[in-house]
Design brief:
It is a single chain. By secondary structure, the protein is mainly alpha-helical. It is 76% helix and 0% strand. It contains nine helices and no strands. Helix 2 crosses helix 4. The longest helix is centred in the C-terminal third of the chain and has 26 residues. The chain is globular, with a radius of gyration of 16 Å.
Length: 153
């Protein structure tokens, strides 16, 4: 898929990791991973259109972070095979899997066919990444079901 990883690729990955440790981005990532569980495009849009709220800022911050990082790999500025390693971008797969089931509808309602496009293109560019997405979609669905069962009790 991509050229052999270089020390510059490793350096960029470490810089991306440092950005993930920034306190506000850490809060945003935690919220998206643990509290944000959209069931539909409308659930996503409820937060996405609530400008001025903390959750809206976090949604935009995490989404733009992973789209930016994916763009580096798509453009060749970062070795895609290295970036797609689970230890580097596993969180990106998890967050994308949360919106994947209703991505087409979300794009339509947003009027933005490019929403999540860098992430989607990067995952589609690699057979191992496509397989990882399938597993992650299953995992996210199981977690959604567990959350629904827990709320019903």
């Amino acid at each position: 898929m991509s050229k052999k990883p270089t020390s510059a690729d490793a350096q960029l990955i470490l810089q991306l990791y440092d950005l993930r440790r920034e306190p506000e981005l850490r809060k945003a990532r935690n919220w998206m991973l643990s509290e944000f569980w959209p069931q539909s495009a409308d659930d996503y849009l409820k937060i996405g259109m609530a400008m001025g709220t903390q959750e809206n800022a976090w949604l935009r911050q995490v989404g733009s972070y992973w789209n930016m990082a994916a763009s580096f790999a798509l453009s060749g500025a970062l070795n895609a095979d290295l970036f797609l390693q689970p230890s580097v971008s596993g969180e990106m797969f998890f967050l994308f899997a949360k919106v994947h089931p209703f991505l087409k509808e979300l794009r339509g309602k947003l009027g933005d066919p490019q929403s999540f496009a860098n992430i989607e293109k990067l995952i589609a560019s690699s057979k191992p990444a496509r397989e990882r997405l399938k597993l992650t979609l299953q995992r996210v669905q199981l977690l959604r079901e567990k959350r629904s069962t827990a709320k019903a009790v």
